[in-house]
Hints:
Elements: H1 3-15, H2 18-25, H3 29-43, E1 48-51, E2 54-57, H4 59-87, E3 89-94, H5 99-113, E4 118-123, H6 126-134, E5 140-144, E6 153-168, E7 189-191, H7 197-208, E8 215-218, H8 222-230, E9 236-239, E10 252-269, H9 276-295, E11 302-303
Helix pairs in contact: 1-2, 1-3, 1-4, 2-3, 5-9
Amino acid sequence: xxxxxxxxxxxxxxxxxxxxxxxxxxxxxxxxxxxxxxxxxxxxxxxxxxxxxxxxxxxxxxxxxxxxxxxxxxxxxxxxxxxxxxxxxxxxxxxxxxxxxxxxxxxxxxxxxxxxxxxxxxxxxxxxxxxxxxxxxxxxxxxxxxxxxxxxxxxxxxxxxxxxxxxxxxxxxxxxxxxxxxxxxxxxxxxxxxxxxxxxxxxxxxxxxxxxxxxxxxxxxxxxxxxxxxxxxxxxxxxxxxxxxxxxxxxxxxxxxxxxxxxxxxxxxxxxxxxxxxxxxxxxxxxxxxxxxxxxxxxxxxxxxxxxxx
Length: 310
């Protein structure tokens, strides 16, 4: 039942007149009469006795009036509580490659500094996070920069970092010796499935040079990509941040790929831009990111624009 019908009904009951109630509610008399008729139909009972002098409640009408007033008060309280809870919620999407570089520290700081915020974290590859964006599930999200950003979201470039080729420990890769994209020609590659932006970038780069693009495993699990590379199953390409705290010891070697970078952007849900939880979450995310970049542990990363300085 639409709670407005009960509100209209109670106003008519209080004033004893549909005409006066319509004026008070800013409705036309025919429109209010239709609303009352709709409520009577839904309740399957006559609620008013009509006369030239106005209207008066029937027995069924008095019962509904007595019972509906506390219900409307409870509904008003519920709306207020839901609004307060929504204002204290924060939904954030961050790619798994950022886990050690940002996500872990960001979540810890948020829980410590804002215990009243209920955080919902989504970690997933960029194409899955974009699906969440399109569904309106995220307040803040970090994904690769897109020339056609998702509707309803503000996009702000954050940083650019190199893509790196990862292989097993006996491969000829070294972090201080960048390799050309031609090095990937015909390699057995372990990569995310389309439409992942990193995958698309590599595939397009090889195709432009008429080189062989060869995937042996498609997986959206970053950890599996790195572990298979460490076991000599093939090679993978990841953003440089994915190598922070990878925990694979010396089982892998890696090298940056010349001229191949990924630019990351922050997406902000415009419908939630004024929520205090979102504002504080955004500030904390950017400050945590600035500290991560300042530490120097994030290989080759450089911030873009002024977003981290605000």
